[in-house]
Design goal:
It is a single chain. The protein is an alpha+beta fold and 193 residues long. It contains 5 helices and 8 strands. It has one domain: DNA methylase specificity domains (Adenine-n6-DNA-methyltransferase TaqI, Chain A, domain 2, Alpha-Beta Complex). Helix content is 40%, strand content 15%. The strands form 3 sheets. The chain has a 4-stranded antiparallel sheet with strand order 2-7-5-6, with helices on both faces. The chain starts with a strand and ends with a helix.
């Protein structure tokens, strides 16, 4: 029996970026904006690209990330778990934080949202006829989960999934570094002719 995602999670949509009022007050905190690159880094468990995040100084009450939050991008359709590096970042209306209950493991939910065919089909159905491929909060609210395994199995699956993504990212980094090294050696050989 398929059950709605909202039976297991509470959704928190990010701050509308155009409504955040910038402040010149020195007492106003400065927030960094959470980005798609940050999401990819959180998902892979390593920093892949060094980018400078947009910042804003504001006295407004804005949506802030906590370590361990499950974050879903309405732009890319990918989910990740916020790492310590990105806690305190401001997230905009392009992201939704999903707060789980005890019956649903965070890693397993990220796995389902990113990899499950049944969920992917539900997202595709919601995007049909749309010119802009952007996911909506309504789509997430209406998602139906496949039958859930025990919490222990969920934890094992979620753990393996996140470790596999981390391993893959490390292997890609090693391959990229080997290529850079070999190309530098070829350049060296050419110069000694």
């Amino acid at each position: 029996m398929n059950v709605r995602l909202t039976n297991f999670v509470k959704l928190n949509v990010g701050s509308p970026q155009f409504r955040i009022e910038e402040s010149t007050s020195q007492v106003a905190p400065i927030y960094k904006f959470y980005s798609q690159t940050d999401l990819e880094d959180d998902l892979k468990g390593i920093v892949t690209k060094r980018t400078e995040n947009k910042q804003i100084r504001t006295l407004d009450d804005v949506a802030i990330l906590k370590e361990g939050n499950i974050i879903f991008s309405l732009v890319s359709g990918y989910a990740g778990i916020v790492t310590n590096k990105h806690k305190g970042y401001l997230f905009t209306q392009n992201y939704v934080v999903l707060e789980t209950q005890d019956k649903l493991d965070s890693g397993f939910l990220v796995y389902l949202l990113n990899e499950d065919r049944i969920i992917a089909r539900q997202f595709r159905m919601g995007l049909q006829g749309s010119m802009v491929l952007k996911y909506t909060v309504k789509q997430i609210r209406e998602l139906k989960l496949p039958p859930l395994p025990t919490i222990e199995k969920q934890q094992i699956i979620g753990n393996i999934y996140l470790k596999q993504l981390h391993l893959q990212a490390l292997q890609e980094r090693v391959a990229r570094n080997e290529t850079i090294l070999r190309l530098a050696k070829l350049q060296e050989v050419r110069q000694h002719e």
